[in-house]
Hints:
The chain is α/β, with parallel strands linked by helices. 22% of the residues lie in helices and 28% in strands.
Amino acid sequence: MKTQDFSFDLPPSQIAQFPPDQRGMSRLMVLDREHRTRNHRLLQDLPGLLEPGSLLVFNNSRVRKARLFGTSLETGSQVEFLLLNNLGEGKWKCLVKRAKRRRNGSRYAIADGVEAVIESEEGEFRYIRFNTIIDDSWLDTHGHIPLPPYIKRDDTSADHERYQTVYAKIPGSSAAPTAGLHFTDELLAEIKRLGIETAFVTLHVGLGTFLPVRTEKIEDHIMHEEYYQISPEAAAAVNRAKREGRRVVAVGTTSVRTLESAWKDNSLPAGEGATSIFIYPGYTFKVVDSLFTNFHTPESTLLMLVSAFAGRDLILESYREAVKEGYRFFSYGDAMLIK
């Protein structure tokens, strides 16, 4: 299957550059896989569209301010780092803009007297060591929200709240699990009032989620590992729902990948691990019955995942209709419920 088979035309004007004025005030396309029908609703309608007794599974990973800017101590040039994995003792695995220019031994002034040196490289990655411990507390003060590259602006103070779910709990993501950005405390309360159960898993969003597919054939794409954790409470909720025949609704593709990765012997075990699962058409879903998600970028692993769930032709047809109807796309855009 070719990567270009998952392309579609999107006017740049429909790529959302800012979140809606109020969280939860987005449009919602409802896609019925069985009848191949679509209708257009509002996000506030979501609770009434879910079957009573359904279980919504959210990803409660918290986005860290993983974007840092530095100045080369040799040339004075500016450099941008995206921190990915904290390896301890001041060492991080990261991506660096114009990585080919960033050689081992290069030193950079970051902020607050902190300096960093590139110690080693691994393909497009760089391993850097800071002269002090860099943790989430330090990043909260000196880092920047890692907005995706299709948002053509610098981050603002508003992004510090809006590029974070209201239920975000465990720091570790380098990008937001964006389907969850639509939910408000009020919406979650209404969902609970209608007898719909919720559970929370953790998958720290990294390269496995947002790295583009660069191979001609999708089967040749290599997914990077991402860390996940499933609490005993979440595992019990999912297993109970599956046993009782109630629908499991994944909120976002990261929740899908967590559930489908961990499922074993007809059960979801509690615990933690790393997943490099790549879901594309032909995959048989074991856990997820419905999916709440954003609209995804062309030729991305995320678009391939929703195509596996609903069928490539139906998804691309739905995306063309979304373009025609003026939906907003990507992280700060509108949403889709696939039933």
